[in-house]
């Protein structure tokens, strides 16, 4: 869908351009003299109307939350009535029906939505609208707002004065309804309550979408698949700027890199040589950014002005997460870092700890492989390059790099590129698993996210880490490469995270893993040393947590390939699906190798069979 955006030079130019765009299936976006504006999606058979009036904070933004809207300014400066009737005729001809929704606010103190509509002609739409509006209330303690319906549409025209009558709209084949909105979102002085307004707007917008979908389903031939596809289909230029600014802030630092100790090898040697008694202090890289300055930039972003409810939620949520991460940079090495880590990763639930303990009780630790069977970091790099070539065959624009570093204790993907410790050694089976984990998931979703119109899909929406790591572990399983030791490690991280929350120190946690749960000293050290990064870092609990949550999602009929569209959380799935249906986002551009493996179908059946995780791996 392309668009036409301009400032109209004459009434005839505007009329002709809008009509031509409808005929050609093009979006219309025109400023109109007298502070008016039209935004029309020709594939969506509805239009919101709003008449500008003084002291009416918030109401215009309710109308602008729709995918198609007409803001009516000074009626002496432009023939709005003619525009409405011409659009109605053209859109009715295109879709067999057309719905116009007039949105205006009532008087202060009103607590009822007042709908003026031919209910007998729109029974399904009115039922959906009333049902959804009845769910709105000012606070958890307050009663729900009321909803009344008046079948006499003409009776309201003395209140919401439109530049054309209901009969004129009806003669064009369209249907007109008026919605008087109780202005509970602003004070008696007309000052907007910003936090409540966003919640009110989201509920109101969703109510209208469901009502309009019923109209479309019954009355038109549009073929819209669901109510979620009715939302906005284009992104305002200012939102693209905000999106890039938010991503620039996030890209200016790597939390994982900045909390990873640079003296990890010295810590390991000292701890082992002292008989597991001495733990040197962690040393970190210098901060490349000033967290306070970044916070100032972060909260200068006008996220509160985003009128698309779905996108407003995503960006507000992401700002809160970045605020927490920047606080953690300032708190690095202190106890406050650990408390912030709990807020970021939500701690260890009882069911997750029980799952981890079950794995550790069933799966014994496997013996260390013969050193002659191991491959080194440079050999692993060659395998990574093969995965890169596999992606490049699917999309010639794909590119990424491998960085081998001495001062790193874990492999990681940062901004789409792969970082590998120089002294890393692993078996061929572990290599196959980590190829799908790091490259087939983290690099892949970064690249797919980079192909989306919104850069936050490559940087990662709020709380994306849990699903990312769940996908990554699932990819190890679906490729038939996950080992008992690997699953034990993920379970050990959960047990260690729970111990950290109980106040356990480094030496006692190491003893717990080594002597109670049977980990080798090297595996126990790796788990514990990662857990104490920064002052106490709970990120490692999300690997098993994400795996468990993803398995439940797949058991419930969830779409695995949808999750490869970018970096987001499971609770974003419905929004991502909605944005794809609205043609704001696209489906994955590249897909992982494991989807083509012979073992994929059998492993997927095992995933959805309901057996315990430990038994799945044991088989």
Defining key terms:
619 residues; alpha/beta; 49% helix
Strand order of the largest sheet: 1-2-3-5-4-6-9-7-8
* Low-confidence parts: 1-9, 155-159
Strand content: 5-15%
Helical/strand content category: alpha/beta
Give structural notes.
Helix content is 49%, strand content 11%. With 619 residues, it is an alpha/beta fold. The strands form three sheets. It has a nine-stranded mixed sheet. Strands 11-13-12 form a three-stranded mixed sheet, covered by helices on one side. Strand 2 (27-32) and strand 3 form a beta hairpin. Helix 1 runs parallel beside helix 3, helix 18 (484-501) packs across helix 20 (521-531) and helix 19 (506-516) packs antiparallel against helix 20 (521-531). The longest helix has 26 residues, at 194-219. The chain is elongated. The protein starts with a strand and ends with a helix.
Describe the structure concisely for a colleague:
With 619 residues, the chain is of the alpha/beta class. It is 49% helix and 11% strand.
Layout: helices, strands, pairs:
Layout: E1 3-7, H1 11-24, E2 27-32, E3 36-40, E4 46-51, H2 59-64, E5 69-72, H3 80-95, E6 99-105, E7 112-116, H4 123-133, E8 146-150, H5 166-171, E9 175-181, H6 194-219, H7 237-251, H8 255-259, H9 264-273, H10 291-300, H11 309-331, H12 335-345, H13 350-362, E10 375-376, H14 377-394, E11 402-405, E12 412-414, E13 417-421, E14 425-426, H15 428-450, H16 456-459, H17 464-478, H18 484-501, H19 506-516, H20 521-531, H21 542-555, H22 573-581, H23 600-607, H24 613-618
Parallel strand pairs: 1-2, 4-5, 4-6, 6-9, 7-8, 11-13
Antiparallel strand pairs: 2-3, 3-5, 7-9, 10-14, 12-13
Helix pairs in contact: 1-3, 4-6, 10-11, 11-12, 13-18, 14-15, 15-17, 17-21, 18-20, 18-21, 19-20
